[in-house]
Design brief:
Layout: E1 6-7, H1 8-26, H2 33-38, H3 40-69, H4 76-85, H5 91-109, H6 116-126, H7 128-143, E2 148-149
Parallel strand pairs: 1-2
Helix pairs in contact: 1-3, 3-4, 3-5, 3-6, 3-7, 4-5, 5-7
């Protein structure tokens, strides 16, 4: 695979999608667990918003690797390791992104084991991690304009 440049438009689209999903989570009644589970649709919506934000974040990481470095990555957990090896993420950020990849896999493949208390904890305590990684991507891209394709 050849590096052809990280598409600025793809980055903007993925970031906008992630932000939309995070706004969806923020709109849920997260002030108390009881309010969160009072309507089962809240749990289902949270599951969907979280999963889709994680998938978009990991897809953005794959795009950076493919277009910026010519590295094809098929598994989400490998995205974090390769971004660390490429110098895009710090060890701490790569560890957190790896955890997010694992949680995304849990939401998709072990959906029947994800509990409302677990999902509530993720929504109230860990979603800022998504923003942290988005900001790390943005910072790295700003610092490496030579790897960005700004054409439409």
């Amino acid at each position: 695979m050849t590096a052809t440049g990280i598409k600025e438009k793809v980055v903007a689209q993925r970031v906008a999608w992630i932000e939309e999903m995070l706004r969806g989570v923020a709109a849920l009644p997260l002030d108390t667990f009881d309010r969160f589970v009072a309507d089962p649709r809240n749990v289902a919506a949270a599951d969907s918003y979280v999963r889709r934000s994680l998938e978009a974040l990991l897809d953005l990481g794959r795009h950076i690797l493919a277009k910026g470095f010519g590295r094809a990555v098929s598994e989400y957990r490998e995205v974090a390791r390769q971004l660390l090896a490429a110098g895009v993420l710090t060890e701490d950020d790569a560890r957190v992104l790896g955890e997010m990849a694992g949680y995304r896999n849990r939401l998709v493949h072990f959906y029947d084991e994800v509990t409302p208390p677990e999902l509530y904890r993720i929504c109230t305590k860990r979603l800022s991690d998504v923003t942290t990684i988005v900001n790390a991507f943005r910072t790295w891209i700003e610092q490496h304009p030579e790897r960005v394709d700004r054409s439409l």
